[in-house]
Amino acid sequence: MRVGVMTGRQAGAGPTAGRPYRGPGAEEEQGIHLRRRLGRADYPAIAEVRHALRDMLGGRDRPSTADVAELLTSELVTNALIHTDEGAVVTATVGGSRLRVEVGDSTTVLPGPRMPTADEGTHGRGLFLVQALADAWGVRAQGAGKVVWFELSWGSPQ
């Protein structure tokens, strides 16, 4: 298990392979990156990813934004570990005024939010939360799998 925080163009292979995220508001060449490879059914790693994300974000924004980032990251990582037979890759990037978190896995089924039923207990709410709390989110096919991502506005502490 390895957690890495990298800056600029030091990121390794994967969804942000060797480059900072280049999306809306990411004009800056430098970004802050977190990359974590998770093994199959590595459920203890969910908390480790949350803590690494919190450490990466530090005091860069209001605590509530970091809380939302942790919650949504936990949901995506949990979904990846529950619904795949292989591991997942988590990448988080702060660039410009955006935080982008991507979770890639080896399943080609593209998920979508659905209304959970009362019989499901707490299951089935992950993407519902992502849809409700993220500024933007989506799913894209990538190689032999997919990447589920979200973005949050990010700024200076107030």
From TrEMBL:
Record keywords: ATP-binding, Kinase, Nucleotide-binding, Serine/threonine-protein kinase, Transferase
Chain coiled-coil ranges: none
Keyword Transferase included in the entry's annotation: yes
Region (Disordered): 1-26
Record InterPro entries: Anti-sigma-factor_SerPK (IPR050267), HATPase_C_sf (IPR036890), HATPase_dom (IPR003594)
Record has Phosphoprotein as a keyword: no
Domain Histidine kinase/HSP90-like ATPase: 41-150
Protein name from the UniProt record: ATP-binding protein
Species this chain originates from: Streptomyces sannanensis
GO molecular function terms noted in the UniProt entry: ATP binding
